[in-house]
Amino acid sequence: MIGIVAFFAVLIGACQGATFDIAPYNTSVEIGGTATIACIVSNLGSDSVTWKKVVSGSSTTTISLNTQILASATKYSIVGTYNLTISNVVTDDVALYQCTVGSVTNEAYLNTVILPTNVSVYWESAPRAGSSVNLTCKATYGNPPPFLRWYKNDVDFTQDAYYYTENTLSSGYGDAMSTVAISLLSTDENKLYRCEVHYEGWYRAMEYTLQTQLSGSSALQSSGILAAMLLAAGALLRNM
């Protein structure tokens, strides 16, 4: 009985054919960096996996067959099942790449970016408990300007922010800006606000974290201590 069940399990698996667990998706990388384009396949069976690069129009160059590299072995490698890694990326590597399994093809675009020269996060006015203050993230001189994501103590709240670009040039360089209004409470002291630089397929390329220091918090604390001391002194005098 067990043998019959195993036979049908193998038969069903063979009928299902290979599947893309993770299909290729557009990916970004810095010039000179290493890019990996995902193509994770299961239940391959007798099918094969082929990577191709679209060089012009519909013309392609075959890079690999399963794990065998058919192009430059110093440029390409297959990692896992069957991700394509491209080393020392140059502008000529910017292209559409195709992962074909059996008769099914999925494709993704590799793009190059130049990271911003600086990322900063700052309050636009003094942060005080009980007030609403704008918090701004600026990524300077990136090509193209990146998208910016916000996290408060690792919780994403990007949907509350306003994103825009400034100083954009015809060359593609520009500044990315993102501003969010924060309603501050006394419990926000020491909370962490993180701004991350994101490109398509490349997340957390850069980041900046700001720890909240509420204005006047130390003075308020001192005032509270002084008030407590005065109350204690008053109680002591009444008991004398």
List the helices and strands and how they pair.
Blueprint: H1 2-16, E1 19-22, E2 27-30, E3 35-37, E4 40-42, E5 49-56, E6 59-65, E7 68-69, E8 76-79, E9 83-86, E10 95-101, E11 104-113, E12 118-123, E13 132-142, E14 147-152, E15 155-156, E16 162-166, E17 174-183, E18 192-199, E19 202-211, H2 217-238
Parallel strand pairs: 2-11
Antiparallel strand pairs: 1-4, 3-9, 5-6, 5-10, 6-7, 8-9, 10-11, 12-13, 13-17, 14-15, 14-18, 16-17, 18-19
Membrane topology: Single-pass type I membrane protein
GO molecular function, one term: cell adhesion molecule binding
Keywords: Disulfide bond, Glycoprotein, Immunoglobulin domain, Membrane, Signal
Q: Which regions are unreliable across 5 or more consecutive residues at pLDDT < 50?
A: 1-15, 218-233
Q: Which descriptor suits the 3D outline? A: elongated
User: How many strand units?
Assistant: 19
The computed structural class is alpha+beta
| Strands ordered across the widest β-sheet | 2-11-10-5-6-7
Written description of the protein model:
It is a single chain. The protein folds into two domains: 19-113, Immunoglobulins (Immunoglobulin-like), CATH 2.60.40; 118-212, Immunoglobulin-like (Sandwich), CATH 2.60.40.10. The chain is built from two helices and 19 strands. A hairpin with a 2-residue loop joins strand 14 and strand 15. The model is unreliable at 1-15 and 218-233 (pLDDT under 50). The protein is elongated, with a radius of gyration of 28 Å. The chain has 240 residues and is an alpha+beta fold.
